[in-house]
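Pasting two entries for a bug report.
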Amino acid sequence: MEALKKSLIVIISGYFSVVLLAVTDPRVRVEMAGIGIEADHLSMKDSLAHVLGNVRLTGENFYARCEDLEYDICTKDIHANALDIAMERGYASAEEAFFSSERITLKNADIGLNAGGGGMVPHLKTEHMEYDRRKRKGMARSARIKIGEIPLIIPSVTVGDWVRFVGLRFDGGHSKKLGGYIQSEMTYNIYEDLHWGLLWDVYTKRGVLIGPVVKVDSEGELICSHLDLRTGYICDRGERGADIDGVAIEKKRWYIDGKQHHHLWERVDILSDFLWASDGQIGKDFYSNDDADIRDSFGELDYRGENDLWTLFSRVKMNRYQHFPQQIPSIRWERFPQEIFDSGIYYFGYIDFTRQKFTQEGPEHPGQWEAVEQNRIDIYWGINRPTELGCGINFTPLLGGRWTHYCGDCDRFLGELGFDWGADFYAFYPSTFPW
């Protein structure tokens, strides 16, 4: 083989990722942070690589080809023209595409998505598509949507403005209690950020479990709201037994499961997680996990100040068969680290008040539960002094104390003395490599 001029650049960062650039002629082969690139020509300017001519890309779970692309080896952003890409969950063709760690943007694209079961593949043509990789959802403008060849389920129509993808979930199997079963969920965007759908499960030994599904995903400048609500009802014809309290489980069984998070005006967060259920065994029989008991329900309100955080938290017992400690409510104020004058020393801490209410077995009457209520005050205060010992090396001595007061019972004092240490390591090695 004719001797050609080659070069090699190895970059080792603090996270020990390795970047290899091998430039050859007439065909360039590049390995960048786990992405293989082949092309007719490559040029580098600072951290930006520009690749031209019959470009091929390979990754851990995708393969792509395009006419030209730009790749930033620092941010790992990719901008490509005339792209065809095959991925684990589908395929896409686009006149122009942008990929980053947070989002994907496609223009004049043809997209197919694997719905994960049932052999039904949503097909989408769109002028412009945005996909949030962290939230796993996308929006398309001027789109045509089709699922398989069955237009009666989701007809192929031209959609104006913005629409969300259809959400599909299928699962199936066999168990001793349920027999053969199929679990499915389908949601569809009916208005802007509102999704509505249906939960539909079939069990050969138990019957049909059915219920509506509602989802809201609203992203605004001042208010962001996320709601995920699922319900299920079944007239159970199988062997049901008793719940954890020994009470016979009725034939009619149901649950309502909800999660929500609202972010208001950049400072307020409202969170809740709640579940109503007819009995304590529905989680083991039909719900999405194998726990014998249902998880607890809670609500939380957070307010973030300039240098502190206020939190109001309450756990609520919504089902009679649940046995876990109750905190009704807990009020907490937390002070973020603040410098004392210009000394380089920082103070921080928190104050927490909780009214505890819980049940326990009576010592004189085993098997009988009695309610216990108690107030608790918990205070922590500490100081530290962050110190930089060298390039990327930090040493922070810490001194603190904690006092916990249980009203009517006891006090507890704890002292803290120690340090935090951290270091970052990196190096750059320019070199030549005989390919």
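Entry 2 (this is the one that rendered wrong in the viewer):
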Amino acid sequence: ANVMDRSRVSSSNVGMVGCAAPGDIDEAILAAAISHGPGVGRTVFAGANAADETVTYINSGDLLTEAFNDGPAFVGDATPATANLTLITNSASLTAQILCERGNPTTAACSAPTGTAGGSAGNGLYLQDTRDWFAVHQGSANILMADGSVKVFYDQNGDGFLNPGFAINPDDDQVDAVGYADDTLEMARDDFFGGIFLNDLYLKGKFEN
């Protein structure tokens, strides 16, 4: 709340948690059942083994979901056969991102539909990777915003995910690798902030020479 109070970004445009997508197959498999009751050797509920009956909430081996996103990313490769999104690295320069979000772009990618980062490879700009949200409600997803409101975003191209502006070339073969089927903008900047900096007033360049 303290950060949002000082932010130039409207709290109604900052997504916090939303309808969850299936988790990544290599890390979202439940290792142990979540259960309690007689005969359950491992429980996450204190004192629950004293219950009269065994109750299993989620079975071992079930696929879990992800309701929080992985952070800023860019289009690492738009070639259909090897298409991918790449998460930001800890050594990335954010100079272009700051200028772009401040409305002083140094690259044409700032003119992407969102008006912020275009998410294209090599231009130093990033968008939030929103693929941990999924349109589970007949083509729509509910997203809880920082002001406590809930917004509904619509999957317009049937891939199940909500694209905040990534420049994905349309190709059926890349959906399994990327998730986004094409560059259809489904989270416009007027409704969703897909950038990085909620408040960059405390950032500056090197003034002294």
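Dev reply: Rendering is fixed now. As a check, the viewer should reflect this: The first strand starts at residue 15 and ends at 18.
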